[in-house]
Design brief:
The protein is of the alpha+beta class. The protein is 44% helix and 22% strand. It has six helices and seven strands; from the N terminus they run αβββααβααββαβ. The protein is globular, with a radius of gyration of 24 Å.
């Protein structure tokens, strides 16, 4: 009888531990969801501060992701100077994505406002000229030659709609014939997205020195 009672007590204790562990795990997952939602609601405005578009630039672009795809954010503005030379202003996350840096700071102190956090982020700024990066003119001409069909042949052939799950975002602002455009691309195979990745790779290969560090 005593052995049976001890066995029952052990089962009850194990069940209680399981329930406690499950509740704790549920609480952790809920807090993770709350933290990510907090960052999501503020990330766009934070990017406008950290990786701003330049109204004086011929074109600017920004690359970023979310909590799931861990993209190191990157932005570039191509600026035409009065002497017809080109300058590129680059800003990019260092070591960890800005998204992850903000999320980490929020978990460290949930009373901080996003404005407080942006001053603590690890971000690098670089300025490149045609002398330090001769590929700038080539990138400008490639951008000018990009095509923007309203609907591609591939999309016209689709029988159903589609959605992008946790896409890498490519945002462009540029002066074009007849005005100025803002373009948001979620398909990494899009012509503009492929150009942005090529430009990023070329600019980063130029970026050895002459940098300014923030954070």
């Amino acid at each position: 009888m005593k052995t049976r009672l001890l066995s029952v007590a052990a089962c009850l204790c194990f069940a209680a531990w399981q329930n406690c562990w499950a509740q704790k795990r549920s609480d952790v997952e809920w807090q993770k969801h709350v933290d990510i939602s907090w960052v999501d609601a503020r990330f766009s405005s934070a990017l406008d501060t950290l990786l701003p578009f330049n109204d004086e630039a011929k074109m600017s672009f920004r690359i970023y992701g979310d909590a799931e795809n861990d993209v190191l954010e990157f932005s570039c503005a191509l600026i035409l100077k009065p002497d017809d030379s080109i300058e590129a202003v680059i800003r990019k996350a260092e070591a960890a994505s800005l998204y992850d840096q903000i999320l980490s700071l929020h978990r460290h102190n949930r009373t901080w406002k996003i404005e407080t956090m942006t001053r603590r982020l690890n971000i690098r700024e670089l300025r490149l000229t045609q002398q330090s990066c001769p590929v700038l003119r080539k990138l400008e001409h490639e951008f000018d030659d990009l095509n923007l069909p309203v609907l591609s042949a591939k999309d016209r052939a689709r029988k159903t709609g589609y959605a992008f799950l946790h896409p890498t975002m490519y945002i462009f602002e540029a002066y074009v014939s007849g005005g100025r455009m803002r373009l948001e691309i979620m398909d990494g195979e899009h012509e503009f997205a492929r150009w942005a990745e090529r430009a990023k790779s070329a600019l980063e290969s130029c970026a050895h020195g002459g940098s300014k560090h923030h954070g």
